[in-house]
């Protein structure tokens, strides 16, 4: 469904103003161009964690043609959790450190590309992941990467950007010993030192983890790292950076619609779409309802 008829088009933008001065200026420029092209905009600035979810949920049955999440991956995830399972289309203005969903749908992040996307994009049906009662768009993991996401500081992200996660990952490998995860899929039990679940092709926005995955498919790919230990963890990180992770013989890949992850360790963190979410155990599945997501043309 194309969105290129702008007459009377009304958008609600849920904006996280903590993105930083440069990104706020970028957002303001996007808003000015959208208004100049005849779009009617209402803007809600988030005040606290969870505000974006509430703002989206309060407007899912309102008169808006589309709800736009403007912020980082965490803000986008909050809006998704407010929208589901309703069918009002979602668009994004990526203003974060990584912007995983923008990378997955091949949305360029310069001002003119975002404006064109919001004016001329096409709405497609996509399927989300779900852990317990929480939705996510692309990826979930447990292991050193989830621990690194939990422990990375805002200061580290401010000064090092995406490299902050690498630093945090190395710190997790040094600090933490071996943790094995029990994964149940179709009544069969697996053991793994790291678990990644992908709805889309990319992990962390840049790394190919599930080449056969698509957001348009009602399925997910589970990647189980079979080797344990610090050296193996470093090797897996190297394989990820070199785009070879899913092709390693010590990575078992299973396509499924649901799974259950647990651990004998207490408070094992989970990350979804690059943000920390709770702790194990967790039931992971494909969403019961699809999300209408705006994609760029081309």
Keywords:
298 residues, alpha+beta, Rossmann fold, Tumour Suppressor Smad4, 2 domains, six-stranded antiparallel sheet, 9 helices, 32% strand, globular
Order of helices and strands: EHEHEHEHHEEEEHHHEEEEEEHEEEEEE
CATH topology of the largest domain: Tumour Suppressor Smad4
Distance between the termini: 14 Å
Number of domains: 2
How many whole angstroms does the radius of gyration measure?
A: 19 Å
Reported for the largest beta sheet, the result is: 6 strands, antiparallel
Low-confidence stretches: none
Number of helices: 9
- Please report the total strand number as a whole number: 20
The residue fraction in helices comes out at: 25-40%
User: Could you give the order of strands across the largest sheet?
Assistant: 7-6-19-16-9-10
Global structural class: alpha+beta
Q: Roughly what fraction of the amino acids lie in strands? A: 25-35%
> What's the CATH class of the largest domain, please?
Mainly Beta
CATH architecture of the largest domain: Sandwich
Mean pLDDT: 94
Descriptive report:
This protein has a 6-stranded antiparallel β-sheet with strand order 7-6-19-16-9-10. The model has no long low-confidence stretch (mean pLDDT about 95). Helices cover about 30% and strands about 30% of the residues. The protein has about 300 residues and is of the alpha+beta class.
């Amino acid at each position: 469904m194309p969105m290129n008829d702008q007459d009377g088009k009304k958008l609600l933008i849920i904006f996280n103003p903590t993105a930083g001065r440069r990104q706020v200026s970028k957002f303001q420029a996007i808003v000015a161009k959208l208004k100049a092209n005849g779009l009617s905009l209402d803007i809600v600035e988030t005040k606290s964690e969870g505000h974006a979810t509430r703002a989206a949920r309060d407007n899912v049955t309102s008169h808006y043609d589309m709800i736009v999440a403007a912020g980082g991956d965490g803000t986008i995830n909050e809006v998704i959790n407010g929208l589901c399972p309703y069918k009002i289309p979602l668009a994004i203005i990526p203003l974060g450190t990584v912007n995983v969903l923008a990378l997955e749908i091949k949305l360029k992040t310069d001002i003119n590309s975002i404006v064109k996307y919001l004016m001329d994009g096409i709405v497609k049906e996509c399927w989300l992941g779900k852990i317990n009662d929480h939705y996510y768009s692309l990826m979930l993991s447990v292991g050193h990467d989830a621990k690194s996401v939990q422990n990375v500081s805002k200061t580290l992200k401010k000064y090092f950007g995406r490299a902050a996660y690498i630093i945090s990952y190395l710190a997790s490998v040094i600090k933490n010993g071996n943790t094995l995860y029990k994964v149940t899929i179709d009544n069969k039990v697996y053991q793994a030192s790291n678990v990644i679940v992908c709805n889309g092709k990319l992990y962390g926005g840049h790394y190919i983890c599930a080449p056969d995955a698509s957001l348009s498919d009602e399925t997910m790919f589970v990647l189980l790292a079979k080797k344990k230990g610090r050296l193996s963890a470093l090797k897996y990180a190297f394989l990820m950076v070199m785009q070879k992770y899913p092709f390693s013989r010590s990575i078992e890949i299973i396509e499924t619609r649901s799974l259950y992850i647990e651990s004998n360790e207490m408070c094992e963190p989970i990350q979804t779409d690059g943000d920390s979410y709770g702790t194990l155990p967790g039931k992971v599945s494909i969403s019961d309802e699809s999300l209408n997501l705006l994609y760029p043309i081309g």
